Amino acid sequence: MPPLPCWAGQEARDMAMGQAYDGNRYLRYTNVAIALHWAIALLILYNLASGLLRPVLPRGFFVLHISSGITILALTLVRIMWRITHRPPPLLPMAPWERITAHGVHLLLYAAMLLLPLSGWAMVSANPPAGSPGAAWAEAHRPPPPPPAPTGGPDRQATGGPAGEGKGGGQPPRKRGPVMIWGIFKLPLIAPINAMGRTPEGVPEQRELHERIEGAHLLGGWIMLALLVLHVAGALKHQLIDRRRELARMGIGRP
Fold this sequence. Notes:
Helix content: 40-55%
Order of helices and strands: HHHHHHEEHH
Strand order of the largest sheet: 1-2
Strand content: under 5%
Distance between the termini: 26 Å
Shape: elongated
Radius of gyration: 23 Å
Number of strands: 2
């Protein structure tokens, strides 16, 4: 038997020991993993566009942002469980530094797919409970909405209220109500964060927390975008320069 190449890992050693396998199937992700990958990818692209470009896009483009984010969180948990219970195919031959970079980017992507939706969920929760004294106080002390942009286009200078309402178009903040996920079920709020604004005394602290979470959420969006660029660049490098048929592993092209 010829010596194994330097990049060979446990998978290659298993194959060398004579385990039967279908080569194409062995190097390709499962259909479930492929479906989860592309579903999450499409939702991430929508959320990045609707979040990072919110000031310049029509207000209606953002309407599904929260539903999409919570779906990303749910699908990511399913994907992690699938990854734990189903061994992924081995990486294609690559230099050691590429292997380390690929593992690092994947790990950071998984972290971002969990932390970004969770921070968005926390941001939605960082508002006084409906009908509470804190909600009445916050409504009475809400800053006036910015005037509409004279051209009718998006008002890029508008910052809205403390929770970020009214951003884009200089429109008044929407009246608060339950956050519905895909119009099907109500998103439960994170109780400890939501309860901070139950009294007027807690509203300023809750607003400050909201601003901190919002800043972290925005920074996380840019980090996610950078990780996606690295992920796509690496896949295209293996596909186009190394001629390794990387995309076929995720269902694009023939096996």
